[in-house]
C-alpha cells in the first residue's frame, strides 16, 4: 500500500511538481482539511483578549454550538488596556470586559470560560504560559483547538503572536507524557487558526452570522464607538469569503492537522 502511494505521488510529481503532488496526497490522508469539525464533540477556542473568538470565528462557533459541540473559551489576558479613554482604570476595564465576554459567550452558546488573566499587552512568551495552556488542553480534551494565526505577517499585537504560538506549542506537547507529568496526555486532532491570510477552509455561516454580530455588539467597551464601520468591515469580510464558498457569508480559517505541527513542509503547503 505504502509502495503504491509512493508510486502514485512520484507519477503526480513528475507531471505537477512535488508540492502540488504532496498537497493532493495530504488532502487524501487528512480528511479534516475538507471539514475540520466533522465528528467533533469538543472545541477549545483560545483568545488573547475577550472578543477575539467572536471576532475571528463567532458565527462558526455558534453553528457548532447549535449542533451540540461543547465549546470552551480560554482567554489569555484580562483585556485591561483595550481602551482609548485615558481616564479608564485598567482593573475596572478588565471587570467590564469579563462581563461583556460572559454575555457574548452566552449568545454564541459557549459552555465554559477559562481565564489566565495575564495583563493585557504583556502576555509573556515562554514555558510558564505554555504549561498553563497545556493544562487546559489536557483538562478540556478537545478534538479541535482554535487560535489566532501567529504567522499573520503584519500582526503587531504581541499577545496575538505569543498566544497563537504558545497554543500551537502546547498542542504539540500535549500527547507527550513527559511534558508536565501531573496531567494526562491528550492528542488534539486538528488546529484551526482564525485571523489568517492563508485560509484553506471556508465555513459557511449564513444561519448564524447575525448572531456573531449580536455577540460582538455585547463587547460594548470595544465596538460601541465605531460600531457602524466595524459592522461593515465584518460583513464585507464574511461576504467576500461567502462569495468564494458559495454561501452568503463564510468565515475563513487555516486548518492544520496536529501531526503537521512539527518538522513538516506539508503544514505550509496544505
Ligand atoms: Zn485581541
Q: Considering DSSP H and I runs of 4 or more, what fraction of the residues is helical?
A: 40-55%
Which spans have pLDDT < 50 for at least 5 consecutive residues? none
Counted beta strands: 7
Spatial separation of the terminal alpha carbons: 23 Å
**CATH topology title of the largest domain:** Rossmann fold
Give helix and strand order, one letter per element, not per position.
HHEHEHEHEHEEHHHEH
What's the oligomerization state? Answer: single chain
Helix-strand category:
alpha/beta
Strand content: 15-25%
Please state how the strands of the largest beta sheet are arranged side by side.
3-2-1-4-5-7-6
Shape: globular
CATH class of the largest domain: Alpha Beta
Tell me about the biggest sheet? 7 strands, mixed
Number of domains: 2
Characterization of the model:
This protein is an alpha/beta fold and 270 residues long. The protein folds into two domains: 1-34, no CATH class; 43-269, Rossmann fold (3-Layer(aba) Sandwich). The chain has helices at residues 2-16, 18-29, 52-66, 90-108, 127-140, 158-173, 209-217, 220-223, 227-245, 266-269, and strands at residues 42-47, 70-77, 112-118, 144-148, 190-194, 201-204, 250-257. It has a seven-stranded mixed β-sheet, with helices on both faces. It starts with a helix and ends with a helix. The mean pLDDT is 97. Zinc ion binds next to loops.
